Model the fold of this input.
Amino acid sequence: MLKFDKEKTLENVKGALALRPEINAVVDEINTNGYSNVMWLGIGGTYASAMQVVVHMKERSAIETFYENAAEYLTTGNRRVTDKTLVVLSSVSGSTEEIVEAVEKIKKEVGATILGFIDNDQAPLASMVTHLISYPTDEQLKFFMVADRLMYLAGEFPDYDEFYKEMDEHFANDIVNVEESADAFGLQFAEKHHEDDIHYFVGAGNQWGATYSYAMCYWEEQHWLKTKSIEAPEFFHGMFEIVERDTPVTVYVGEDSQRSLSERVANFLPQICGNYTVIDSKEYDLPGISEKYRGTLSPFIFHAINNRIDAHIEHINRHPMDIRRYYRQLQY
Amino acid sequence: MLKFDKEKTLENVKGALALRPEINAVVDEINTNGYSNVMWLGIGGTYASAMQVVVHMKERSAIETFYENAAEYLTTGNRRVTDKTLVVLSSVSGSTEEIVEAVEKIKKEVGATILGFIDNDQAPLASMVTHLISYPTDEQLKFFMVADRLMYLAGEFPDYDEFYKEMDEHFANDIVNVEESADAFGLQFAEKHHEDDIHYFVGAGNQWGATYSYAMCYWEEQHWLKTKSIEAPEFFHGMFEIVERDTPVTVYVGEDSQRSLSERVANFLPQICGNYTVIDSKEYDLPGISEKYRGTLSPFIFHAINNRIDAHIEHINRHPMDIRRYYRQLQY
Done:
């Protein structure tokens, strides 16, 4: 299977899940000291992950939590952020300019507690955060583990132990098997859409952030294919007027609280479009995981499927995904 | 001048500004009774206006305020919304399904105070809100007047009276003159871009919501032209990789706190693109308005300019902007 190392992927996910005691030690301490709200700070792909975890929390929690774009924080600021705020961020390189500057500003002006998932623990950013956890891959899972612990401690996630028992026992194997089983679909999808003039991606709920970033950080940035992403309920408030018979539209239908919003798009599309794809997380098994937790895990299913699409588009287009024409190539 | 009734526009803006005593009576009462946070509820165009007012408030305020998509509120809910919340919304028709249902849910489950700007005061929605203000046009101005009064009462806008003295004396005339003076530009822009395969719009700060809705609710919904809108800082985190010599890109450069983010895009574009347009609010006079207030008013300048673009695209394309192929035409 193209660009797929089953053992390595399995090891990555298991390693991320094994971070939980380390994450909990930090979160429990923060909770004991008290905090007023939680800001998820990001830009580009990490901004998108921040959007996802905020929706995830909103499903259960009364904790004040919001996402913030690092560049916007640097200019407009956010007066809800104080020394009682918990800031959570993630950075692979530890060198993203806006994130580094935002952390400097938070430390200098506010003194909030900062939990940073920074893969490169040699980056200066790694020594700037209050609490550092350094482990490559699985950003969304790390964010969800922080959110879940916060909600557990707030009494909003009574079945936390039950959920993570299932996760520890089954999730890594399940999600790797999803990726494997999605390969034929990924090839078929790539063959059909690798030359699209523009591709529309529709998502909702905890998949909206991932829909936004898959379109932008993968198709635009890495495949150099034009896209537009749209939140499912917004599709009906303007965007759909440009959809015609041959317009390529993909809808992610997850199993979280906003499933009905994506289903509405999926159910409507056949009336006006002959080139649509519905990707429904329900079609993929997660043995050992209870039905009630599948909504939380839908984005991971979609991520595994998208990986297969990417591998095949990359090969068909002979366009290595590592090439950038502008990003970190030019001055801006 | 095409599709421009100067006297009528002037009268509309003056009428909106004259709502201030009515708005303040409501807001002052809510403030006296106490509120914990402010939710701006919308969908489509009104969702975009909600985004704008939240950025406007973040520039000055420590009040907890956020925007919420009505469809997402109906599914995921928002536990920050309680009987101490002030909900603000706007609806022209009063019949937007998601807004009506969200108001029903808020009344039934939460009992928050709801201030509704509902143009059609005969719509059932008009009798469902706690406080009704009914006046056509100028939604953004109405939202800003609510926000400004809240911030004034919280001690965050000490020069409120000074600002509104200038607004009452000069804004209506100024903004109508901006629209008139932008007509030649609007024609030239429309002639160049009325057949674009796709047009990219970049915005930031209090113009981001308007950038999103101008692209979606005008070009897509009313002109049936493809667009993508992007927040200025996000442009550099993926999207820009698909920009080439002939890609049409328009950047709104306003004078609010995030001006530098849009400027960065405007300054970079000439390196990679030969088909870009920078629309800078600074190029338009607002006589009688102090420099320090121009940031707040930038979105109104852009709105006036966009009106001219629309009038000319509509005529050149012979595509009346009132036509919808799907919206409220089909079942979905």
Q: What stands out?
A: The beta strands of chain A are 37-42, 65-69, 85-91, 113-118, 131-133, 199-203, 227-231, 249-253, 276-280. The CA atoms of residues 24 and 149 of chain A lie 7 Å apart. Chain A has two domains: 6-158, 175-317.
